[in-house]
Amino acid sequence: MSSIENPTRKRILETTWKLLEKGGASAVRMSDIAKAAKISRQALYLHFPNRAELLVATTRYLDEVHDIQSQLVASRAAETGEERLREWVIVWGNYIPRIYGIAKALMAMQDSDAEAAAAWEGRMQAVREGCAAAVEALARDGALSPELSEKEATDLLWSLLSVRVWEHLCIDCGWEQDRFIAHMQRTLARVLIA
Amino acid sequence: MSSIENPTRKRILETTWKLLEKGGASAVRMSDIAKAAKISRQALYLHFPNRAELLVATTRYLDEVHDIQSQLVASRAAETGEERLREWVIVWGNYIPRIYGIAKALMAMQDSDAEAAAAWEGRMQAVREGCAAAVEALARDGALSPELSEKEATDLLWSLLSVRVWEHLCIDCGWEQDRFIAHMQRTLARVLIA
DNA sequence: TCGCTCACTTTACACCGTGTAAATTTGACA
DNA sequence: TGTCAAATTTACACGGTGTAAAGTGAGCGA
């Protein structure tokens, strides 16, 4: 990507990320980012056409930095469906807090900006595919609860592993990350497995 | 409340409700409400100091109309904790779609308007109390899973019954309301009960 | 050294939606 | 007829996004 080749662009993305990580989502304005990146607000628009695209670019940059791809590959190596589900909860569940800042900002824009909505939608569809793969693995093993269709199981898994549920438990209820992972594994095992 | 005594106030609340029910949350502006209520935008400010208070007043009006109180009383009559949990899922789970419009608008304001945040917070705390009561009833019966503290069980129940999860399953995944209720009952039984 | 380009700055402005302010109209009722 | 309240009209301030255009300055090749 163009993240490495262009130093200011990279600095902008880095700054946006850090600002979103601490400050509360919509509190991060274009002018805040500009100031923090030691750039004029207008210069921001030389690199990104609007706020939505800047946020989306930041998520892509994060994926790049965290090398999410290779982490996903690891979770696919699991032998049993049950093991795969546990791995998937770990991989995605632990990724959530790292992207939470941008996620929050992007989710806040969802009903005002169609482009931002589509971008977030796309990323969540990718997560859904991870969920679907885990459910399929369970089904292959004959471990999927007979009360659930694969679609229903995927929907449930996807919902329980959503950023919103993580937010509710870890931010609003004050759960530690470890506890979140452990309880999600337990909960999903009980809900999905026969 | 002053909802009955004042006809225009009532008309405003009614209009706000209907507009939020169809239109997408933040798409409902003060001017939209004014137009639909056949009033000037300024007249709105004669009745409500700002958008946040108008939305909050609308939720209170909704509770009044739906008489949520008496519904809650009914769910408390259940004999066993298990039965009480099932009833609670029905009562609150079926109330969500009725308030979803306002909920969405209010949730969208959460990180821009402190007053709106506090108002929504307060309402959700009331829901949490319903969850806590159900968990307590389970604990009294000795039916609560030994792997969960009462606090954890309440947090989980509260999270799974959140508006966001309902939204995810019923709006994003296209579930029917009945299916939502049924699966939530099943899921929560498996997660919370020993 | 001239002149070009590129990245960025400065200044200024349009648009939207919220909220404030004040003068004016309308209608009921005494 | 006069008064009062409710609502209207008009106008404006503010904050945040995005656009537009002229200006600055460093680097670089001819």
TrEMBL record, chains A, B:
PANTHER family: HTH-TYPE TRANSCRIPTIONAL REGULATOR BETI, HTH-TYPE TRANSCRIPTIONAL REGULATOR RUTR. Signal peptide: none annotated. This is TetR/AcrR family transcriptional regulator. It comes from Sulfitobacter sediminis. Residues 29-48 bind DNA. Residues 6-66 form the HTH tetR-type domain. Keywords: DNA-binding, Transcription, Transcription regulation. Pfam families: TetR_N.
